[in-house]
Amino acid sequence: MSAHSPSLVIAAIICGAFIPVHAGMNASLSRTAAHPIWATILSFGVSFGCLMVATALLRPGLPTWSSLAATPVWAWLGGAIGVAYVIATMLLTPRLGTAAFIAAVVAGQMTMALAVDHFGLLGFPRRPVELSRIVGTIMVIGGVLAMQLNRNT
């Protein structure tokens, strides 16, 4: 299947559609759990439970100790980034609104993705930045700024 296959793009769009829903769920859980930290623990507890069910159903092989030991230190920080993101959804989505929060998240993602691709960071192949991608990212950032104009907060 080609990297530009329409089905892959559609799958990514569907995943993206879940992000604002996820942010709303996290914000709601945060309100009822008395603190974003407790809500994050509960959210990741549900995630862990889902992973245990998936593990029982799929029965993947165990990683080897040597493969885990060979993992770059920075790769272990993905969980910390996940925690930071979930807490951010709880704190920022109610204040910014879902659309503005997601637009800002996408702007940050696009900016970092350009750097990751251009420099071949995190084990990805180098993909030099092209003008069209820079323009697209600037347009996303412009959209974030436009969404913040004339806000009644």
UniProtKB/TrEMBL annotation:
**UniProt keywords, alphabetically:** Membrane, Transmembrane, Transmembrane helix
* TM segment ranges: 6-25, 37-58, 73-92, 99-119, 131-149
The name under which this protein is listed is DMT family transporter
PANTHER family linked to this entry: INNER MEMBRANE PROTEIN YDCZ
Does the record bear Nucleus in its keywords? no
Q: Which InterPro entries match?
A: YdcZ
User: One Pfam match, by short name?
Assistant: DMT_YdcZ
Question: What organism is this sequence from?
Answer: Hoeflea poritis
Q: Which domain of life is it from?
A: Bacteria
